[in-house]
Batch of 4 targets.
Target 1
Amino acid sequence: MATERTFSILKPDATKRNLTGAVNAVIEKAGLRIVGQRRIQMSRAQAEKFYEVHKERPFFGELVDFMISGPVVVQVLEGENAIARYREVMGATNPANADEGTIRKTFSESVGENTVHGSDSAENAKLEIAQFFQDSDIVG
Ligand code: ADP
Ligand code: MG
């Protein structure tokens, strides 16, 4: 296993409910280090670009509206096998199917408003980090 970086978003349902600290505690407890973090209001154009791969899906409009409905916290997480590890810690996309102890099982209220995003591959992690961070804003 190698040290990797992955891209994370604490979504608007997390910021609205003051859960960013609670979610970060789960992330850190799982051995992932938060090496970059910024609270932003995503623009519609940024959200559409970020979720471009889903643009033909029926939930795309709803997803973009949700992602710009309030502030988000964008993060870079670092650790052993960070991409797969964070997907494990997040839990299944639909919180109803997520394992006990995962972020989505613990905090999420629906498949759409599911609290966190995490990259699904090394290639996407790199692209997603580059969309929101400059190298100088990541301190490992
Ligand atoms: P993940 O975030 O687990 O990688 P996907 O990449 O499949 O999941 O979907 C991206 C995001 O789109 C999800 O996190 C969720 O916010 C939203 N989404 C996925 N499926 C649905 C759905 N059936 N209805 C509404 N929103 C959805
Ligand atoms: Mg995905």
Target 2
Amino acid sequence: MENTVLIVEDNEINRALLMTILEDTYQVLEAENGQEALEILRNPKNSVSAVITDLIMPEMDGYQFLEVYSSSPEFANIPVIVSTSQSDSESEVKCLEYGAWDFIKKPYNAQIIRFRVKNVIERSELYALRKLRYQEQFDTLTGIYIQNMFINRTKKMLKENPDKDFMILHFDIYQFQVYNSVFGRREGDKLLCHIADMLRKMAECGTCMTYCRIEADAFCICAPAADNEMIQNIMDWFQKDFQVYQRDYNILANMGVYYVEDNTVSIPVMIDHAKLASKECKGNYIQNYHIYTEEIGKSIQEAQSIVSKMERAMKEEQFVLYLQPKYGLAKYKLRGAEVLIRWLTPEGMVSPGKFIPVFEKNGLIMKLDYYVWEQSCKLIRNWLDRGIKPFPISVNISRVSMYNPRIVEEIHELTVKYDVPPELFQLELTESAYTDNPESIKKAMQQLQEYGFKILMDDFGSGYSSLNVLKDISVDILKMDMKFMAAPGSENQRRSESIVANVIRLAKDLDLPVIAEGVEEKEQVEFLSSVGCEYVQGYYFARPMPVAEYEKLAFT
Ligand code: C2E
Ligand code: CA
Ligand code: CA
């Protein structure tokens, strides 16, 4: 294929001369100044192999052009030859500083020009080739192996040492993107290079070790198998080093360990296993490494199979609403219900405790929440159409759904669409959702309340900030989960009871009704009435039930 040379020169005669010299061998493009040249270069249709530029031109002169050129990585491999009539060394040095590859002098000597152009093109091709070779093996940022090379080398090492036991370590920085946004990308890159240096040091200490950068902040190591104590030592070594490296930030490393036991497992799968194990750390400072076990693999598989089944389940209406009644404690009268989702698969029922956390992780929960809200609105509409005067029902809002910027409109639009009075449609929001992003939630809650929805604070008392939260936001009803209290008869029961009594008193001061949920025992009921709790929900009174069953209980 013919190479393309770009001539940047304002003087028409010079351009024509250069054209005549080069057009037999190359395809030639022309620009009258630096600006035009950049436009031609940036056009992906023009694949330019070399540039010849004049220095003195209108609009954008040769120096300005070189300056832009040398700071644009996409031009890094396109050689530039400066054509000059000046022969002072000062301007030559300046050009070289800006990345010029060579010079040609005016008046033009055709032979010299042809040679110089040919030479720079060949040189740039050689660089490109070398760079490619390098990039096929090494990570350009840190200079250590990339994953493919790691896999090759590790395969070889395992083969050559059949009697040795090995382990694969997957190492990364907890919330590296936070570090990046605090200190900037450049510092982030520096930290990665520092980690690569530490791996080099580690490799110098022992024999038989391979390592690489897998991607972003993730590194992999294959080394002789070590016991828990040794692994902890490695992690301590990293943590101590990080404390010195960056005093203003707690850099936390997470590591997953996979022991190579079965040679039929491929290295990429081993890496995956180690990575899964490292996910178990979840930013824990004390347990900052985890060892891969079959259970970890299984639970991940389970999660994946749940996700893959979700779409179909939605279409086939495998998700059904159950209702758990709530009672007034004074007269044991039914006063409403909470909507709880159930997943009825052909293989049996999956409990929300299993699939809700999975859907929260991958965001599908937003879809599911919306589905539940819409079904609930339809249900209320159906009751009203049948002339029933229903009690309010409450739906759950996942903390993830609160990130949806349209949540207020969506809920409002649903109740308008089904003509449901907002006082019949209550919203349960967990306390932890509020602590996630207080400002936006506060606003959303206020707007919902302005539309007439009542907001229940779910799982009150389960987090650390319960009382603080109450100070900041206005909720309409507190739900206090008895599950978070000490079991009856246990050592801490008295303390628990005193907390419950005080929460109820405090709530009364704030005019907030309290629903105690998870009430299972008679003694709990007695205690709750003795301290003036108004509402209860729990197995002692009724379990979550299908809609038809609830209708019988509530409306007849
Ligand atoms: P939650 O909102 O705190 O719901 C109360 C849970 O406690 C329900 O579990 C309920 O069946 C259970 N429960 C009620 N009374 C008792 C009792 O006396 N003893 C015991 N041990 N448990 C009792 P479920 O239905 O398994 O739901 C678990 C969690 O899953 C819910 O906790 C909620 O966070 C979530 N969830 C359920 N349905 C939905 C939904 O439609 N949307 C969203 N976003 N989350 C839901
Ligand atoms: Ca709830
Ligand atoms: Ca709850």
Target 3
Amino acid sequence: MHWQVDHQPNDVTHALRALSAVLACGAAPQDVKWTEGEAAQGDLLDGTAAPPPPTEAVPGRALRQLPVGFMPLAETVALHAQADRYERLHELAIDLADDPRRWRDALDPRRLSLERMAREVRREIHKMHAFVRFRQLDEGNGEVHYVAWFEPVHHIVRAAAPFFARRFAAMHWAILTPALCVHWNREGLEFTPGVDRSEAPPPDAGEALWLDYYRSIFNPSRVKTAAMLREMPRRYWHNLPETQAISGLLQQAPERSARMVAQASESQRRMPIGVPRVAERAPRTPQEQLSDLGRRARHCTDCPMAAAATQTVWGEGSVGAQLMIVGEQPGDQEDLAGRPFVGPAGQLLRRALVELGWPAGQLYLTNAVKHFHFLPRGKRRLHKTPGQREAEACEQWLEAEIRLVAPQAILALGATAASSVLGRSVGVAQSLGSWWQRADGLPVWVVHHPAAVLRRAESGAPDFEAWVEAMRPALQRSMA
Ligand code: URA
């Protein structure tokens, strides 16, 4: 059975409802043709083509049963211009419906490519906010109408419009684009079909003023062409009045500045237009992927701890380190410093590693949970053991770190770390003194958490010397 879903690029609600419908009827991505245009007669959504009942062989799936992060991702990706975006979302939705644990795989190639698309959409919304330049049109009744022309690549006009409504609430304005125009009459937003560039207003007096102002603030000795290009990609230039002035300004600059700027411009000219910025290229080496992962984890909000903590505390060390040490979660000091194992428990661990003669370059230090979990008590923040929800939310990051660092062995500090690394609930007492194996074959050694040693809080927690000795087999195995 083949389905045709006609959707309008500027009506993502319709398209996401269609995605929900094809999922519910168990259609496979290759059986659904997504075409841009007016909603067709007899398509899946108008009921004239009844979807088949789900069968066991082709089970229906419900969007609402997918991990909570899927819909926000889908809503952003739906604004991307890439024609196969719904097919890709459909594929990921099916993967997730069949195995929701895949959402915890931060390196899943399908998820990665959709997240890249979502980033491109967000970036363009940001650029639209920054680069729309209104021109004044006198309406003849004493009113001024501000009109701008913008050419987005993605379908972002609806998503970007509320910003302008807030920012220019008292003005009467319109932003014209080839695909969709938005108008603000000081009361509400109205969307109308796109128009041709010829309908964009000509330069006006306001623009001359703006150019004068731009010339006056332009400082050629501080010009950073690469940063300027990064912030203002060339494809926006032809609609930005200030770009007409830039080359002239550079020429008039004192000779030395002009030479510096010209050299920089030359190197930029050699960069073909359309080549993505380095930071946006698909990461190549595991080390680059690891850094990229850390950057993404900084914005993770999969559990409520993210809102209360100061920052994500990412792992420290290099890809290929022979031993990975996994702690529970950052403490108060780690949360403030943004580095793992710098507080009292961390210092005890570092002292133990020195006593064992552990080469620092062969270590990767991280935590099962990446945010500080605490209870506020007056001015103090009391450590709170992370629950299953927090550990599960962070599992994707830890698993991706393990895969990229690819250590020879893992040393788990305490029960939370051991449970996260082994993927099931384990206690410290039952795990001490023997090697455990993860599903991927990696050997895991478990010792008490340094905080337990520090406080001798748990019954059976060893003293410092015994704890150091308990760690030794992990060193020997990872160096073997
Ligand atoms: N500091 C960390 O970074 N992790 C722990 O588990 C304890 C202290």
Target 4
Amino acid sequence: MEISFFHKNLLGIEGLRVEEIRTILNATTAFKEISRREIKKVPTLRGKTIVNLFFEPSTRTRTSFELAAKRLSADTVSISSSTSSVVKGETLVDTARNLQAMHPDLIILRHSAAGAPHFLSRHIDVPIINAGDGAHEHPTQALLDLYTMEENVGDIRGKTIGIIGDIKHSRVARSNILSLVTMGAKVVVCGPPTLIPKGIEAMGVSVSFNLEEILSELDIVMMLRIQLERQERGLFPSLTEYSRFYGLNRHRLSRCKPGVLIMHPGPINRGIELDPDVADGSHSLILDQVENGLALRMVLLYILCGGKHDDS
Ligand code: CP
């Protein structure tokens, strides 16, 4: 397999070249097949050790990274903040240095602080994958989203993707904007003015505050979760009001292109940003995103545990 990936870590989509993104996407199909076998295990990373350091809740990303490592025969250890010495006051750097002393080959980090994986990468030598850092980036989500889009619509160049909802607090939105614009897609972000960062057009996207007006232009609609845990007060009047203007329901789906595809990174607030019949309907790619995420993370473990790199 020809691998063009030139970094020791995956800290964000920012800084990735088109050829690096293509390398990851191209390899994902081969790794996807492994999870559909009866015996879902290959010896690729036998003898390697991967530490999952999840200091924020997660279902999809954490399970996906754990299964990805196991299916490649790596040894894995999973640590959450509530069961680690962080609760006794240990710093992130001290935790990571202690883990490094046990010679892992890769650390996967989810943290509520933006920049935590970048900071850690300056203090330890072990390669790091950012599994979501605050409201900053979630690079593996954006890559699995891009793979899922191209699996369904072909080359993403020239396609129009709407990212709807809480853009301001969303690391998924930020990483998706970076990857989609890099790969030549058109991106429209849409939500209440209070949830769209000022100046976001500089990232190469257009902005709308009116979902009804843009629906007919979109090839793919990516709904975002309202992040109640990151909200300041008063950014919109109520969840009911938010849902009335920005929720995707059957009526709004009927105003989209006939073959429109619906995505959501999960977890879904059912009935708020997405009605259940749309989430579970024939246009939805939500569970394809999850399946593809496992395969894509297998690729990244393979590259970063064993691949060559020319920077740090
Ligand atoms: N999409 C995503 O990051 O989900 P989790 O928070 O469950 O990992």
